[in-house]
Design brief:
The protein is mainly alpha-helical and about 400 residues long. It is built from 15 helices and eight strands. The longest helix has about 70 residues. The structure holds fe (ii) ion (2 copies).
Length: about 400
């Protein structure tokens, strides 16, 4: 039967190859270039259905025409389901074969065109994915540059503060650092920590708009006359006004404006109560008072034991959760002698304190010694260092000595 079909097909001007063994036929298909295959529903070594499965796996687009008899029609229909494009019932006329061949070639052409379109579509999707990834990488790069700009700007602001009053600048650095640790303990992350740290560093920047004598008094004995006190009460609002001009710092301005509000409503300037005060401002209120009274030459009598005073005021002046986190942070600080250890850049975690500068390969200081690391700083450092972080020299950080 194979030879007869081959002769018929050749009479239409096509070249043929005949094989009576299914395995051999599939091998021929794999190594040669064929436009169509005819297959008897029963081969000597395999059923026609098994042959179709093999051909579909080896040459998915090759059109297969089944040759069948009337008694095998149900098997022929199963062959169509498996991927044959048509069947011819024996005995057949040459014109039947010709019409099927032309349809088979048309099917193959359509399949090939569809396959090319699918390939083009896949390539376009891959192109789009590459563009999206390039866009994301650019956004990450701009974000790193932006955050570096923010941190540089904060450093400049604290330097300006130190020209006004060195003790006030030191107080601002401590409030920034301690607030950051409290924020980490309260589960703040990402931009929340960056904003909290910024608000801590800048919380008293409104003092720049006041007489330098007021800052000196507040950093030493806390005694102000009536006029000075009236002016002092405005430093929150003035600080917020200085910062709110920077669009990125709108929420930082809101925290600065409220950094002397107490949860029981006895703070200033608005007398806000409870959750009406932003969490970061509730943190600053407790840290601000603690540091102010710890560093004064003559703190008020009730603040001679600042930690006990903090506990007393938990739930009154201060948010109890903030006091608890602050006491935790103080306990960490007082946990005895600390040692300096080296850790890989990939092992840095928020709350670690740097024992030496982190520098880029060309020696530029990325983050300075003594800095308490936030998640954003760690991300920025990793971004600014080489992409192969595992090849970067270890970083020196402080940690408590194990008991
Ligand atoms: Fe203040
Ligand atoms: Fe302050």
């Amino acid at each position: 039967m194979g030879k007869r079909i081959a002769n018929t097909i050749e009479s239409f001007g096509y070249a043929t190859t005949v094989s009576t063994r299914a395995v051999e036929a599939v091998q021929l298909l794999r190594t040669g270039r064929y436009g169509l295959m005819t297959c008897d529903i029963e081969m000597p070594d395999m059923t026609g259905l098994a042959v179709i499965r093999l051909v579909r796996a080896a040459c998915p687009l090759l059109p297969v025409l089944m040759i069948t008899s009337n008694s095998e029609l149900s098997t022929a229909l199963e062959a169509l389901r498996l991927g044959a494009f048509d069947y011819v019932v024996k005995p057949f006329k040459p014109s039947d074969i010709r019409e099927k061949l032309e349809r088979g070639f048309a099917v193959a052409l359509a399949d090939e065109q569809r396959e090319r379109q699918v390939d083009k579509l896949k390539e376009r999707i891959a192109d789009r994915d590459r563009q999206i990834e390039a866009g994301r990488e650019e956004l990450r790069r701009l974000n790193r540059l932006f955050k570096k700009g923010v941190l540089d700007g904060l450093g400049i602001s604290v330097n300006i503060l130190s020209r006004h009053n060195e003790a006030l600048a030191d107080h601002s650095r401590r409030v920034g650092d301690i607030s950051l640790r409290v924020g980490v303990k309260l589960g703040l992350r990402g931009d929340e920590l960056l904003n909290l740290h910024a608000a801590g560093l800048l919380h008293d920047i409104g003092m720049l708009a006041l007489s330098p004598d007021i800052a000196v008094a507040m950093c030493t004995h806390g005694q102000l006359d009536r006029v000075e006190k009236t002016a002092y009460l405005r430093h929150c609002e003035l600080g917020a006004q200085i910062v709110e001009g920077i669009e990125r710092f709108q929420c930082v301005a809101a925290v600065i404006a409220a950094h002397h509000e107490y949860v029981d409503g006895t703070g200033f300037p608005m007398g806000l109560v409870g959750d009406a005060i932003p969490l970061s401002a509730r943190i600053l209120a407790a840290v601000e008072d603690l540091d102010t009274f710890r560093s004064m030459n003559r703190p008020p009598d009730e603040w001679r034991d600042p930690v006990a005073r903090l506990q007393d005021e938990a739930g009154r002046r201060y948010d109890p959760a903030v006091v608890s986190a602050l006491l935790d942070a103080l306990a960490d600080e007082a946990a005895g002698p600390r040692e300096v250890v080296e850790v890989a850049v990939t092992e840095l975690i928020p709350g670690m304190k740097l024992a030496s500068d982190i520098c880029s390969r060309n020696g530029m200081v990325l983050v300075g010694e003594g800095q308490l690391l936030s998640a954003d700083m760690i991300e920025r450092v990793r971004g600014l260092l080489d992409t192969d972080l595992h090849a970067t020299p270890p970083v020196r950080v402080e940690r408590a000595v194990a008991a």
